[in-house]
Every structure is written in structure tokens, then in C-alpha cells.
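User: I've been trying to design a sequence by hand for this structure and keep getting stuck. Would you show me what you'd pick, starting by listing the structure so we're on the same page?

Assistant: Good idea, let's start from the same input. This is the structure you sent:
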């Protein structure tokens, strides 16, 4: 990649972005299409999210992705929100248009696109979401819109209660009781299973062949939860497919071009 005086900048805001796969996907896509664009790691220390967002505007970034733990915190620093992001209360994509920073969310559509790719239709099925952070918000709203019956559980109960208030017909289950819920679909929206928690599973209950388990984690690709699901004969879906789908949607939003999804996916092969 060559950086020129005309290079258009986008990047990833998060507490820890060192190992992010988004850098590979977006820079691979820019390269494949011969675009003079670059996607940069933008690590942000606790307490500096406001400065980081103002920096995007000051430095004429076209946009950014937002990851843990800033998807909710970033909102108060933006000028506008899309209707979907406002409804979810979480932003994973910022677009800088005419000096204004617009918050959007491509996680929800990315999640649903990957479920569809696995022939999973959540309509009428019971779904249990583990977690109540930014990703859980997107998943909860997407599943609710698609007609799933929702159960939410989170280590910090008050966050699950707050999320449930924004999604109709949702029941909250205590974190300590989560293993007793018999759901058709279980979605892990916590980082339990990655980084310093590799080998740990957030699911303490039984699983069976009639269930679908989605782990949003993509490093490692096969988490302890997915192994547990496979061993029980359940359909086990990792986070890589959603990662590609949400990235493709962000790419389209920033560049107004059709995303080279196959190229983006190929950058993640042989990891
Ligand atoms: P976040 O906003 O920081 O939320 C993290 C959630 O996990 C919170 O509900 C938190 O509970 C819970 N949590 C954290 N540590 C925990 C622990 N040790 N035990 C139990 N619960 C714990 O993060 P996020 O952006 O939603 O991301 C969550 C996960 O989804 C990450 O693994 C991320 O990589 C993944 N993700 C994947 C994709 C994809 O495309 N595949 C997209 C988005 C996110 P508290 O409220 O108690 O703190």
C-alpha cells in the first residue's frame, strides 16, 4: 500500500485494536479495487473517546468503525444517528459527511445476513442473548425485528434491564440462572472465550441437536462454546461470517462502491 497526499482515511476506534481483522479486510478491499484509501488502527485509551471522535473530524477522516468498549459511549460525541443506530443505542460505523459525524450500525444487518447464509430463520423461535453491550444491542434489535422471542442475560443485570426496555416483549434472566433457559438460538455477545479468556465458555447449561449456537467471537475461530455446541450436535456458527458482512456494509457506506466481499473474506483465510 502506498500512502499519498490524497489518501482517504478510515480506521478502527477501540480499546484494543492490535489484532483486529478489519484492517486486513478493508485494506485488502482497497488494494483489490485500486483505491487510494487506508484503514488505520486507532487505539483509544479510557476516558479519551470524545477527543478521538473530534480527531476524526479535525483530521478529515471519511469515517471509522467503533469496537469494544465504545459502541455506546461514542454516541454523545456524534452529530447525528441513523434511525437504526438510534433505535439500537449502539454505533459501530461513523460516516463523516459535510463536516458532520453520523453514527450508524452495520452489526445488526451483518448478523442477520450471516444467519440467513446458514439457513437460520429466527422468526417465532426463542433466542437467548448472552451480554448487553454494543453487539448485544444490535443482535437483540435485529432478532426482535425478525420475529424472535427474546431472553436477555448479562453479568451486570441493570444493563440487561435497560436493553430489555428498548426491545418489546423481552424477558431478562439472571446471569446465574442462564444455564436453565431452553432456547432455540443462543448468541454469545460477550468476550468470554477470547483474549485472556480463551478456553472459557459463557454457557453453563446443556445443549442439544435442535439448537443453534452463535458465538460472535472470531478470534479464536473455534471457541470453547462452539466446541461445546458441536459436541452436542447443535449448529455452531462462529463470528467470522458476521464480521465480513458488517465490514462490507461499512465499506459501502464510506466509499459508495460495491464491496468486494469475496476479497474481504479471502483476506481472513489461513488465519
Ligand atoms: P461491549 O460493548 O464491551 O460489551 C461486552 C459485554 O460482555 C457486556 O455485556 C459485558 O457485561 C459482557 N462481559 C464482558 N466480560 C465479561 C465476563 N468476564 N463475563 C461475563 N460477561 C462479560 O462489547 P461488544 O462490542 O458488545 O462486543 C462483545 C463481543 O462481541 C466481543 O467478543 C466482540 O469481539 C464480539 N463482536 C463480534 C462481531 C462480529 O462481527 N463477529 C461484531 C461485534 C462484536 P457487563 O455489562 O457486566 O460488563
Amino acid at each position: 500500500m502506498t500512502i499519498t497526499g490524497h489518501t482517504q482515511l478510515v480506521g478502527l476506534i477501540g480499546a484494543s485494536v492490535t489484532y483486529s481483522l478489519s484492517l486486513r479486510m478493508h485494506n485488502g478491499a482497497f488494494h483489490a479495487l485500486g483505491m487510494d484509501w487506508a484503514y488505520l488502527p486507532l487505539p483509544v485509551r479510557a476516558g479519551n473517546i470524545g477527543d478521538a471522535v473530534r480527531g476524526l473530524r479535525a483530521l478529515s477522516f471519511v469515517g471509522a468503525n467503533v469496537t469494544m468498549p465504545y459502541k455506546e459511549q461514542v454516541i454523545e460525541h456524534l452529530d447525528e444517528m441513523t434511525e437504526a443506530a438510534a433505535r439500537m443505542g449502539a454505533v459501530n460505523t461513523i460516516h463523516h459527511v459535510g463536516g458532520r459525524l453520523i453514527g450508524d450500525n452495520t452489526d445488526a444487518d451483518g448478523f442477520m445476513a450471516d444467519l440467513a447464509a446458514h439457513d437460520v430463520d429466527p422468526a417465532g423461535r426463542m433466542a437467548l442473548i448472552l451480554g448487553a453491550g454494543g453487539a448485544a444491542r444490535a443482535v437483540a434489535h435485529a432478532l426482535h425485528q425478525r420475529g424472535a422471542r427474546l431472553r436477555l442475560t448479562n453479568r451486570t443485570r441493570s444493563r440487561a434491564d435497560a436493553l430489555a426496555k428498548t426491545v418489546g416483549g423481552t424477558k431478562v434472566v439472571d446471569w446465574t440462572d442462564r444455564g436453565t433457559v431452553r432456547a432455540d438460538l443462543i448468541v454469545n455477545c460477550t468476550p468470554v472465550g477470547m483474549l485472556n479468556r480463551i478456553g472459557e465458555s459463557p454457557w453453563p447449561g446443556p445443549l442439544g441437536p435442535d439448537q443453534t449456537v452463535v458465538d460472535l467471537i472470531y478470534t479464536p475461530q473455534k471457541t470453547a462454546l462452539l466446541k461445546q455446541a458441536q459436541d452436542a450436535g447443535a449448529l455452531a456458527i462462529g463470528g467470522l461470517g458476521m464480521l465480513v458482512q458488517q465490514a462490507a456494509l461499512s465499506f459501502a457506506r464510506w466509499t459508495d462502491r460495491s464491496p468486494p466481499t469475496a476479497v474481504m473474506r479471502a483476506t481472513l483465510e489461513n488465519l
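That's my pick for every position. To get oriented when you compare it with your attempt: The pocket of NAP is lined by residues 67-69, 71, 107, 110, 131-136, 154-156, 159, 189-192, 194, 216-218, 239, 242-243, 246 (CB under 6 Å). The first strand starts at residue 8 and ends at 14.
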